[in-house]
Each structure stands twice: as structure tokens, then as C-alpha cells.
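Our consortium's second objective concerns turning raw sequence data into structural hypotheses that experimental partners can test. To show how far this objective has progressed, the report includes one record in full. It was chosen at random from the queue rather than selected for favorable results. The single chain below, 87 residues long, was entered without modification.
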Amino acid sequence: MKDYIEERAVSIANYIIDNNATVRQTAKTFGVSKSTVHKDVTERLMQVNPALASEARKVLDLNKSERHIRGGLATKEKYLHQQGSMA
């Protein structure tokens, strides 16, 4: 594996842990795809730093378990905003 990919995987994991970030937020910050973020954390990082990979995975698993709540809140906010402009 190339050095810059290893460094990116470590940087991505640290960002996820430090910011409690989602895959989508991380991908946008680093200018890569969501697939790349996921692969960096789940596969590449396991080869470089398994402990860090495990910590990042915990954050991503928590975010995944909460995403239906965030989605519901976003939808609620959207419809509240639309009702306000119709009045």
C-alpha cells in the first residue's frame, strides 16, 4: 500500500474519532468518496493500525445506529420550514 494512502487512512480515522463524524461528513472534508472513507477505515487501516481502526469503527457504528433519528429530524425541519413559507 502506498504511503499516502496509509497516511490518509490514519488521518480519516483520527478525524472521525475527534469530531464524531459521519462517513458523509468525512468524505466531504477529505474530498474523497464515501466508499473510500469506508474502505480506508474498515480494510486499509486494519493493516496499519488495528487499534485506531477499532476506535473509528465504534464511532461509525454508533452513527449508523442513529442515522434514522438524524434523517427524521432533518425531514421534520424541512417540513416545518416549508410550512413557515406557506403562511
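The partners drew two points from this record. The chain has a mean pLDDT of 87. Helices lie at 3-19, 23-30, 34-48, 50-86. Both points have been shared with the crystallography group to help prioritize constructs.
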